[in-house]
Amino acid sequence: WFLYAAIAVWGILVYDAAIALYPEIPGTGARAFHFGLGNFIMWVNVLLLGGYTFGCHALRHLVGGNVDCWSCTKFGQTRHKLWSIVTKFNEKHMQWAWSSLISVALTDFYIYWLSTHVTTYQPWL
């Protein structure tokens, strides 16, 4: 059941990273595209957490588990393709785990650091 919760949290992080690309312009209420270090850090975090989440053993079993014959089951080719993709992520599951753990800590620290107004946010684009 934790897999479903992890996918939901990952979706929320994707949404957060997407809306962070269009911050509100102070005083106008309008939004404009900006890409800065914070956006980069958030998208790297989303990528690494996605690699970890979608390489999960439970997802691998969910999409292709309990199948002895791919051509004998309904949607066998599709399930095999999904299973192959998840397996590619699963082969490096430990690397995904450590890198996503570090990225979560760095992302949280960076957002906290900006919220303390130690520095001002300067977008790249």
Please characterize this protein's 3D structure:
The mean pLDDT is 86. Helices cover 66% and strands 0% of the residues. Helix 1 (2-19) packs antiparallel against helix 2 and helix 3 (57-64) runs antiparallel to helix 4. 14% of the residues are buried. The protein starts with a helix and ends in a 10-residue tail after the last helix. The protein has one domain (2-115). The protein has 5 helices and no strands. It has helices spanning 2-19, 37-53, 57-64, 76-91, 93-115. By secondary structure, the protein is mainly alpha-helical. Keywords: Membrane, Transmembrane, Transmembrane helix. The chain crosses the membrane at residues 6-23, 35-54, 96-115. This is Succinate dehydrogenase.
Give me the secondary-structure topology.
Elements: H1 2-19, H2 37-53, H3 57-64, H4 76-91, H5 93-115
Helix pairs in contact: 1-2, 2-5, 3-4
Question: What is the compact description of this entry?
Answer:
This protein has 125 residues and is mostly helical. It has 5 helices and no strands.
Which tags fit this structure?
mainly alpha, 66% helix
Number of strands: 0
Given the helix and strand composition, which structural class is it? mainly alpha
Query: What does the average pLDDT come to?
Result: 86
Q: List low-pLDDT spans.
A: none
Distance between the termini: 40 Å
Radius of gyration: 19 Å
- Order of SSEs, N→C? HHHHH
Task: Characterize the biggest β-sheet.
Answer: none
Number of domains: 1
Given the C-alpha coordinates, what overall shape results? elongated
Number of helices: 5
Task: Summarize the amount of helix as a percent range.
Answer: 55-70%
Strand composition percent: under 5%
